[in-house]
């Protein structure tokens, strides 16, 4: 693993071009992510630093403090991180996450996050002080750790992520599950979803957002190179043969999707299984424009924030 420090060019708090995030500022603490998920779309970015390399932006908290000073109205909440993971297992990144989240929370700005990592104790304790301001999503697509090790080589195991969910909830964090990407024939079997949903429902999770894998050239190359088991690679990629391009909302790059009928019946089945466990599913509209106009709402939750000396609940989407 290689960790490099870099200076950020431009603003920290930036709107995302992903539709579900278009209304809140987002923060990436790094360029690159050492989780090295084989399906990760950042592999296609021109600034992608490479496998197991992470470039950490210097003093993100200080820069946000300056930006907040210049804003007429502070944001209700900030989202971590559309193109990296704030809780990857790199001490420099976790330290930046702590400093940045503390800065926001102490100024009354909410923190929303999505992660496949483990939230460390100091940050759990920080979150516990601001339960009305913090919500998050944990990315987990299957409890099969043999598959997880292949698809997400540097990500904690399913049981570690489930334990992290439990800890976050014990510290007052509103939490949901993100099943993205669901991979046809690999992670979307009924038994796999039953086991996943059973385990998260047991923790008290009630919301799940879901989306099937989309392919872009860099993702296809990564799957071909990383899946040494050729039959596995074939199983993943053959499902995409004879399918057309699809547009991902807010992004100029086209992606290859599973046929709409395959996705629609897959989502219907996911929904049916989820309902057995009292889970409410939300489909990501950004990546399924042909099926729904709904927002997946990423963290799919609301935050409370102080505004004009009054506490009000802000619905973010
Ligand atoms: S955790 Fe997210 S950002 Fe990091 S490699 Fe995996 S998909 Fe990409």
What does this structure look like?
With 317 residues, the chain is α/β, with parallel strands linked by helices. The chain has a single domain (2-308), classed as pyruvate-formate lyase- activating enzyme, CATH 3.80.30. 33% of the residues lie in helices and 21% in strands. The strands form four sheets. An eight-stranded mixed β-sheet has the order 2-3-6-7-8-9-10-13, with helices on one face. The chain is globular, with a radius of gyration of 19 Å.
SSE inventory with pairings:
Elements (H helix, E strand, L loop, with lengths): L1 E5 L7 E2 L9 E3 L2 E2 L21 E5 L2 H11 L6 E4 L10 H16 L3 E6 L5 H9 L4 E6 L5 H7 L6 H13 L3 E9 L7 H13 L4 E6 L4 H10 L3 H9 L6 E3 L6 E3 L3 H17 L3 E4 L19 E5 L2 E5 L3
Parallel strand pairs: 1-5, 3-6, 6-7, 7-8, 8-9, 9-10, 10-13
Antiparallel strand pairs: 2-3, 4-5, 11-12, 14-15
The structure holds iron/sulfur cluster (SF4).
Can you tag this structure with a few keywords?
single chain; 317 residues; alpha/beta; pyruvate-formate lyase- activating enzyme; eight-stranded mixed sheet; three-stranded mixed sheet; 9 helices; 15 strands; 33% helix; binds iron/sulfur cluster
What is this structure, in a nutshell?
With 317 residues, the chain is of the alpha/beta class. It is 33% helix and 21% strand. It has an 8-stranded mixed β-sheet with strand order 2-3-6-7-8-9-10-13, with helices on one face. The protein has a 3-stranded mixed β-sheet with strand order 1-5-4, with helices on one face. A two-stranded antiparallel sheet has the order 11-12.
């Amino acid at each position: 693993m290689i960790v490099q420090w870099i200076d950020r060019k431009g603003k920290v708090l930036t709107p995302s071009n992903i539709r579900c995030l278009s209304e809140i500022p987002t923060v990436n603490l790094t360029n690159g992510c050492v989780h090295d998920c084989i399906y990760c779309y950042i592999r296609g970015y021109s600034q992608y630093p490479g496998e197991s390399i992470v470039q950490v932006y210097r003093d993100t908290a200080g820069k946000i403090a300056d930006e907040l000073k210049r804003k007429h109205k502070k944001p209700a909440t900030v989202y971590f991180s559309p193109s990296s993971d704030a809780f990857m297992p790199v001490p420099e990144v976790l330290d930046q996450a702590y400093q940045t989240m503390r800065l926001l929370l102490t100024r009354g700005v909410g923190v929303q996050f999505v992660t496949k990592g483990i939230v460390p104790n100091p940050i759990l304790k920080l979150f516990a002080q601001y339960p009305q301001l913090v919500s998050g999503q944990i990315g987990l697509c299957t409890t099969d750790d043999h598959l997880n090790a292949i698809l997400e080589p540097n990500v904690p195991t399913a049981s570690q992520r489930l334990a992290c969910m439990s800890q976050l909830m014990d510290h007052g964090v509103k939490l949901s599950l993100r099943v993205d990407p669901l991979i046809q024939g690999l992670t979307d079997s009924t038994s796999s979803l039953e086991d996943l949903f059973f385990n998260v429902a047991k923790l008290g999770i009630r919301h799940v957002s879901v989306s099937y894998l989309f392919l872009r050239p860099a993702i296809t190359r990564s799957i071909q190179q990383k899946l040494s088991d050729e039959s596995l690679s074939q199983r993943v990629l053959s499902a995409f043969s004879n399918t057309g391009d699809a547009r991902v909302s807010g992004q100029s790059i086209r992606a290859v999707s599973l046929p709409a009928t395959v996705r629609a019946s897959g989502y219907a089945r996911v929904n049916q299984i989820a309902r057995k466990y009292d889970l409410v599913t939300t489909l990501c509209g950004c990546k399924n424009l042909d099926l729904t106009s709904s927002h997946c709402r990423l963290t799919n939750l609301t935050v409370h924030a102080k505004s004009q000396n009054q506490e009000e609940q802000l619905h973010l989407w």
